[in-house]
Amino acid sequence: MEILAGFVIALAIGLTGVGAGSITAPILILFFNQSAPDAVTTALVFGTVVKLVATPIYFARGHVNFRVLKYLALGGLPTTVVGSFLLGQFDKKSMTQPILLIVGITVIISAGGTLWRSLYRDGITSKPVNVKWLPWIVAPIGFEVGFSSAGAGALGSVALMRFTTLQPAEVVGTDLAFGLLLSIFAGGIHASMSGVPWTILGQLLIGGVPGVVLGTQLTKILAPRKMRLALCAWLIYIGGQMSWRAFDTPAKPDVKPVAVLKSN
Questions:
Q1: Phi, then psi, of 260 in degrees rounded to 5
Q2: CA torsion 150→9→219→146, rounded to 10°?
Q3: Is the distance from CB of 134 to CB of 68 less than 8 angstroms?
Q4: What is the rounded distance in angstroms from the CA atom of residue 116 to the CA atom of residue 110?
Q5: What Cα–Cα distance (Å) separates residue 136 from each residue in 71, 76, 133, 184?
Q6: Sign of the C-alpha dihedral, residues 129, 133, 135, 138?
Q7: For the whole model, what pTM was predicted?
Q8: What CA–CA distance (Å, rounded) separates 129 from 135?
Q9: N or C, fewer C-beta in 10 Å, the chain?
Q10: What is the C-alpha separation between 154 and 64, in angstroms, rounded?
Q11: Confidence of residue 92 (pLDDT cuts 50, 70, 90)
Q12: Could you report the per-residue pLDDT of 207-227, keeping only the tens digit for each?
């Protein structure tokens, strides 16, 4: 089942540029019962490997705008490091509810924005800004990726559509490269602090590597729009489920042992 999940997630990443964190972490939490912090680490490392395969393909096609990517990295990488170290300061058990809620809300917002863009060609009106403003625009996305793994694909692509003049193929390619940089930094930090669940990661990658290669090739014959519509609708449902689980999951307070006095 993990191999199939890895294949489907990577197929979506290769075809639409969306899904490394927004899909992987929710699936690991909801369907494979991983703890939220472990799911964040697994999603980041999985996203790194998959994007290492996909990004060079888009680069070879001339779909990565390095000038824009430079400004995205200036804003995203420092806040990714901050978000990653911040998560590492908290106890894993106490962070289950906050991460569920943060990932759930992020997935709903990012999927809703992408769905809006996909349903209406003019749904997100392009209002290009000076590229020097891009670091400030994407800084919160970097923090979100470091803290919860979600947001680079969907939120990043919406930001590029809104604030740059990049063509759709360039949006996907540049956003994949941006997400790769964030995943490398955040994944490395998370892996060094908490380790990597290698067993499930290996199974995801067995399906993920061929899935992302197939996805990048399907862009030549398939318009990603229809798949993005279905993907976003499903993500909104998943985000809602995670948000509900955050409120439905009782907190587990630390219980200190109480000494019992025995009387003779």
A1: -110, 125
A2: 20
A3: yes
A4: 10
A5: 9, 9, 6, 21
A6: negative
A7: 0.76
A8: 11
A9: C
A10: 17
A11: low
A12: 999 998 998 888 777 665 666
Contact between residue 95 and residue 87 where contact means Cβ atoms under 8 Å apart: yes
CA distance 176 to 194: 25
Tokens of 86: 């911040």
Quote the tokens at residue 229. 């519509």
Q: Amino acid identity, residue 202? A: G
Instruction: Give the list of residues 6+ apart from residue 48 with CB closer than 8 angstroms, or none.
Output: 180, 183, 184, 187
Q: Which residues of 94-107 are buried (b: 16+ CB within 10 A; e: fewer)?
A: ebbbebbbbbbbbb
Quick one: tokens of 176? 């994949």
Q: What is the 3-state secondary structure of the chain?
A: CHHHHHHHHHHHHHHHCCCCCCCHHHHHHHHCCCCHHHHHHHHHHHHHHHHHHHHHHHHHCCCCCHHHHHHHHHHHHHHHHHHHHHHHCCCCHHHHHHHHHHHHHHHHHHHHHHHHHHHCCCCCCCCCCCHHHHHHHHHHHHHHHHHHCCCHHHHHHHHHHHHCCCCHHHHHHHHHHHHHHHHHHHHHHHHHHHCCCHHHHHHHHHHHHHHHHHHHHHCCCCCHHHHHHHHHHHHHHHHHHHHHHHHHCCCCCCCCCCCCCCCC
**Lowest-pLDDT range, 22-31, 36-45, 145-154?**
145-154
Residue with tokens 């800084």: 139
> Among 141-145, 189-193, 256-260, where is mean pLDDT lowest?
256-260
- The 10s digit of each residue's pLDDT in 36-47 is 788 888 988 998
Sign of the Cα torsion 128, 133, 135, 139 reads negative
